[in-house]
Specification:
The chain has about 160 residues and is α+β, with helices and mostly antiparallel strands. It has one domain: Cathepsin D, subunit A, domain 1 (Beta Barrel), CATH 2.40.70.10. It has 3 helices and 13 strands; from the N terminus they run αββββββββββαβαββ. The strands form 3 sheets. The protein has a 6-stranded mixed beta barrel. Strands 1-13-12 form a 3-stranded antiparallel β-sheet. A hairpin with a 4-residue loop joins strand 12 and strand 13.
Amino acid sequence: MIYGSLTADIKKGLIKIIFLMKTYKIPLKIYEIPGGGIHLLIRAKANNENTFLLIDTGASNSVFDINSLAFKDTEFNTKKDEMQSSGFNSAIENLSSGKIESLSLSHFKTSVPEAIFTSLDHINELYKSIKLPMISGIIGSDFLLKFNAIVNFKIKTLYLEKK
């Protein structure tokens, strides 16, 4: 169906939706990992600290590095019974929750009231050994779905929408 054949009411509704949603373009950095794999990183600012985040469309939940300087002032709560998660190879242990007051990805700004935290030392050690920037978190499908994300590999851009 093309725009010209839509009824006036549908056209008005589409225009309203288009103007209510703001789309943000965030540049992606694409890295090939030795031994196989491709990682997508974005520049970010977490609690006013410049950092990088890994985009992982296969991760169910976003998780942030409890050891990152960006979260040095965050108050963490450990909830062993209520919070369980798993990764591709094994269960993820020592999960905590906390609030991220401000998270900026280019001009896109938000907070994360119930963020999940754990150590990402194993990832940062790998990144250090292959001269990639350290990360402060992994953005998973929960965040990507919430903001209707689109990853455009051709132009190396992550699009997010926000009302």
